[in-house]
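Section 3.1: Structural characterization of target chains.
Under the original work plan, the team committed to producing a structural model for every single-chain target entering the pipeline before any wet-lab resources were allocated. The record below documents one such target. The sequence was received from the expression subgroup and is listed exactly as submitted; it comprises 327 residues.
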Amino acid sequence: MINAAIVGMGRWGQTLVNSVAGSSDVITFVAGNTRTPSKVVDYAAEKGIKLHSSYEDVLADDNVDALVLASPHSVHFDQIMAAADAGKHVFCEKPFCLNAADARTALDALASKGLKVAIGHNRRFSPNAIKLKEMIDSGELGDMIQIEGNFSANMAGYAGEWRESRAESPAGGMTSLGIHAIDMFVNLFGRVKSVQAVSRRITMPYDIDDSTMILMDFENGQSGYLGSVAATGTLWQVRAFGNKGWGNIFAHDQFTAQLTDGSFIEESWDGYPYPGMPTIKAEMEAFAADCEGGAPFPATPDQILHATAVLEAVITSAETGTRVTLG
């Protein structure tokens, strides 16, 4: 059993805790810290979480094996470096960092201590995403040609929170939404070679962009398109095209495919309404298993680093209006 501490106990931090509370035999939350501890005293007591007054106190807690960071991403780097110094494994919500240099330094710090790292991309654990990857890897969709995705939601309601900051949310919805699609693209198509982004504010009531579009070239020669609208209804969809057909995932639980031989595939799964609690529990338990010496977490450190580099390139391209080639 991995004893974890939750850092950041807002809506999503509590979602992470709730995903395994009382139902997992591999990971449990025993400690926590948040910016305003008084807001979560009752919740912490209900979940049996020892509430610490500072992050430093969490690091000093010998009962804590691993940290789960549900904090704003601008503080991730410092928190991860401190965790490495304290000998704690790290599960970090996305994005890991906002630039590749920080991500590499943080990943190297953890690796040098033999510590495990994971990233909060629960959509890798959705049954429809697993189905699409299996079809691609098996060759059922043929040679892959193009991938398209869209992750949109209504961020206009986050006034007064960190998401309304352009420093925290460069390139519109990319740090909150689009980074999930970048990870899925890397998961399905491999490494990205270059990006061209256009991002602008159109209707958003505060100073972040609400329309972001990216064209991508992959190292394997395929192409991709990603869109993110940060002031509309929620949409999560990824479609991959091969020369034998396409496969499409929608939300956590719907899958369709059209093959060139005329056959049509449609499949759905019960029990995955937003936010897809089984996928969150699965990522928590996959992290715990890795910490205990089991199977590596599906998103590798190299993929975490590469996705961070892609995000940085998207932000740079959006700011400069130029195509950015990754190093």
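The domain at 2-122 is CATH 3.40.50.720 (Rossmann fold).
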